[in-house]
Amino acid sequence: MESVKVVISNDQKSVKIPTGIRMLIRRCCHAVLELEKFDGSAEVSVRFVDNEQIRQLNRDYRNIDRETDVLSFPLGENGHYDINHDTGAKLLGDIVISVEKAVEQAELYNHPLQREIGFLTVHSMLHLLGYDHENGGLEEVHMREKEETVLTQIGLKRDNSYYMGDD
What we know:
Layout: E1 4-10, H1 21-35, E2 42-49, H2 51-62, E3 70-74, E4 82-83, E5 90-98, H3 99-108, H4 113-128, H5 137-153
Parallel strand pairs: 1-2, 2-5
Antiparallel strand pairs: 3-5, 4-5
């Protein structure tokens, strides 16, 4: 992997984004690509929204009329990505995180907001790279193992909680 450009935007006013979250997201994206031995440069977009905004996106793109914690919008398929012709970087896609939902889940699972946002970012990055857990089984177990490997590497090791919700 050559370089990773992570464009982060905050389109919500419900929750103040804690100091260090943007750096954490960049570290998560970089760690996933490193684990996956990603070839070349990459670009990814991360957008913070509130519950109503993510509910609308979930309704529009997945026909599910409820808020969720994170949505992934991959721009590639089977390892083939659109290219930013100015930089030569592969465009992986967009990650949309409901910060309100992340706060709720951090409280529910009794871990810091940083751990929750880190998890959601890693989880979504794996989706952008083609991983899926929707069908359960070994594919889901494999994805969960990769999530925990990355989070442990960056210092966000899981405690006794375990995330098994929708995305």
